[in-house]
Amino acid sequence: MNQPQETDKLPNFVLDVVKADVAAGRNGGKVMTRFPPEPNGYLHIGHAKSICLNFGIAQDIPGAVCNLRFDDTNPSVEEDEFVRSIQEDVRWLGFDWGARMYFASDYFERLYAIAEKLVREGKAYVDSQTIEEMRAGRGSFHQPGRVSPYRDRTPDENLELLRRMRAGEFPDGAHVLRAKIDMQASNQNLRDPVMYRIKREHHHRTGDAWCIYPMYDFAHGYSDAIEGVTHSICTLEFENHRPLYDWFLDQTPEFDPRPRQTEFARLNLTYMTLSKRRLKLLVEGGHVKGWDDPRMPTIAGLRRRGYTPEAIRAFADRIGVSKRNSFVDVTLLEHAVREDLNARCRRVMGVLRPLRVVLENVPEGQEDAFDAPWFADDPSRGGRSLPFGRALFIDREDFAEVPPKGWFRLTPGGEVRLRNACIIKCERVVKDERGEIVELRCSWDPDSRGGNAKDGRKIKGTLHWVSEKHSLPAEVRLYDRLFRAENPGEEGDEFLGDLNPASFEVVQARVEPSLAGAAPGDRVQFERVGYFCVDPDSKPGALVFNRTIGLKDSWAKQQGK
RNA sequence: UCCGGCGUCGUCCAAUGGCAGGACAGCGGAUUUUGGUUCCGCUUAUUGGGGUUCGAAUCCCUACGCCGGAACCA
Asked: Catalytic: A266?
């Protein structure tokens, strides 16, 4: 996984910035990046873009490294379960942070010491206004802010108050520590931002050791600096925070290297939502079965769905990195996974909606078998034997009593080839009293063993099939896009109204016996149908498959027009 | 309306003053015992206006459009 160039990676401006810094000899040529998730949810495909960027730079630049740092400065929303899942997901994606797993909370003591230093130097003060007063005092886009009546407290006074804040002498919200910058600044982030707030919450790592917690803007840059990060890469919404990031670091010239922030555009994908808040709503509202529901854009969901790390990395490499707000077409992701699965998945047969076929010219009890390769275009990769007999199953979709124009599957009186087996002809359609087709009576051509007719007649259609007697029952979960709208919730906040009611369907399928030992995580192609992955719910004798992605289907496309 | 950012095929990304190119999508064709794969071909773009230059997607001015910003969130 340490191959830097496993796909054609696009050039990107962030890598260019890093390379230029190396060339200029900044930081002595040292490069350190970091992936800094807040452990308040599961990682999704958008995070994968950031992970591939940050860890990718570390792989592309000799000697560079990338840290994993949990940005856990807000105990009200952060949990250990997320810390665990984030590690699992980054590792699964194929990246390694070595021994460099850190927590912002590891730095609480040092951050606090920096805060005291700023107080002593008169660069920070304790404000005792209410939230409302502070908000009003901060002004607006058009109005400059007003200074707080507490802004002129002496360093000694501030230091004492800060220490008492830490000691727990004040109720939540009674005071905050603010940086003393510029209430007139046109960038509102510079209007005396809050550095610490009082918050009596149990922290997932520090427990009840603290009742004051640092804010992002104060904590993040210093966490970078403490670790020796050189390039702090984040998304566009932090662009307005960069002057503040720099201001804090300017107050502490002792840090070397001094990290610099570079922003890039976060990922948006059609027919998906990548908002943490919305993903949480989907999980908590029961609209999906959990963070790892195969319809979720989470790494855990994609993994369970059957996506491979290679496919996700190839996708990340191909969408590139820029500062433009973009909406990537989900077909690009789907293409990446098909491309990878096409190369690696054995071809097997599974009948999703079984229709019984009886071959009347095969004697009862007679069995036969056909050899079939795992990969038709490369028989050296091995194969298996397919049992065959009088009763078979084909897919209901592959028979039409009244075929549409262009149909070359089975019809009454018509012939098709059974994949890797022989040619059959439909002699008769058996229906129940309601007129539903229950069975097809067919005959096979004994001179077509292997699939080609001895007399040379051409057979256009080839169907997948399984033997009734030897096939295995399997639950197959058919997943489709979670949303039917290209941009869910585009109008207002009604994204739940755009849920695709057909995003999940379960069918009782029959699969070929070679799948008896299939284990969770195994991936196969059901020929003519799609790529499937064995679900963790699967057990021997009770197989469960998830549809990762269907095969491209030009017949369906043609019918849709 | 203030601050910051961004405008290149339908979508995403290149081209860093010198022939606007790739991928996906779409369309057409060839091959095919998967209506899959593979292969070949085609369509389509520099937001508008001015300027600098032998030459501008690229530099300058201007207009317009889109995104982000007024948590004791990150």
From this structure: yes
